[in-house]
Amino acid sequence: MSNVNWQKSTYSSEGNNCVELGRSHASDVVQVRESEEPGTVLHSSPARIADLLAAVKCGRLKP
Questions:
Q1: Which stretch of DSSP H or E encloses residue 53?
Q2: Mean pLDDT value across residues 12-40
């Protein structure tokens, strides 16, 4: 997928140590990558990403 607009959280540290979300204008697929490995991209639906973010925010995904 080309022309992906990547975005990282404002809470991310400087440099290449963060997760980025991206979406192309021609697709409903949300892409996820780790900034240190930009060539490895996961694809998911907006609903699943929203569920993931909700779980993180409420603390359900602790190590």
A1: helix 46-57
A2: 84
Rounded to whole angstroms, the Cα distance separating 33 from 18 reads: 9
Cβ 21 vs Cβ 7: under 8 Å: yes
Both tokens assigned to 43: 């694809």
- In this model, does residue 1 exceed pLDDT 60? no
Structure-block tokens of residue 24: 């192309």
Whether residue 19 contacts residue 31, with contact meaning beta carbons closer than 8 Å, is answered with: no
Tell me how far apart the alpha carbons of residues 63 and 56 are, in angstroms, rounded to a whole number.
11
How far apart are the C-alpha atoms of 61 and 41, rounded to whole Å?
21
DSSP designation for 33:
E
